[in-house]
Amino acid sequence: RYLMLGDVSTKAAIKLSLPEVSDFFARLIQRVSPKSYQQALGEVFVTQKFLENFCGDQVRFLSRSFAVPGNHLGQQSHGFRWPYGPVAIITPFNFPLEIPVLQLMGALYMGNKPLLKVDSKVCIVMEQMLRLLHECGLPAEDVDFVNSDGKVMNKLLLEAQPRMTLFTGSSRVAEKLAADLRGRIKLEDAGFDWKILGPDVHEVVHFA
């Protein structure tokens, strides 16, 4: 699977580098997210570079184990990477391509079976990207993709009990999920993006 996923990454990176493909995704992002063309294209570029970084044997190198010598002759500790197995990924609206692709591929590279839920307002972007990944050789059964509201997804998580969930979104939902899933969750919750405005700024309402 390391070789297969390295090959999928190679093909997907090549496809995203094609002007007609990158333009398609940039304009698709614009249809569902309030971004300029350059901002949307930048998201496609970052995603393409990520896939490019994991071509060939790079997926295999992610699973590199380690050994640390101990205090005494012949004493060593060894570390090995093992997949969680069934995992869930929940991503927000503001990066409809970049965040889900990077998190999804990371889960796949390490041997997990991900259930992916993207914000329903922008999920068409990832739906199209999954079709591209299937075209590049990713087995259709490797990813479960669900479109639903938050309540349905919450119920699904409680019933499915994934070994780990990666959530990117609001602090309020993050706190609920942390309690519901009894800590089997990694959070990238909301923060503050501070802006300092100088005395020469006249369009304060626009910046707010």
Automatic annotation (TrEMBL):
GO terms for cellular component: mitochondrion. GO terms for molecular function: aldehyde dehydrogenase (NAD+) activity; L-glutamate gamma-semialdehyde dehydrogenase activity. Keywords: NAD, Oxidoreductase. The keyword Acetylation does not apply. GO terms for biological process: L-proline catabolic process to L-glutamate. Residues 22-186 form the Aldehyde dehydrogenase domain. The keyword Repeat does not apply. Gene3D superfamilies: Aldehyde Dehydrogenase, Chain A, domain 1 (3.40.605.10). InterPro entries: Ald_DH/histidinol_DH (IPR016161), Ald_DH_N (IPR016162), Aldehyde_DH_dom (IPR015590), ALDH7A1-like (IPR044638). Belongs to the aldehyde dehydrogenase family. This is Aldehyde dehydrogenase domain-containing protein. It comes from Genlisea aurea. The lineage of its organism: Eukaryota, Viridiplantae, Streptophyta, Embryophyta, Tracheophyta.
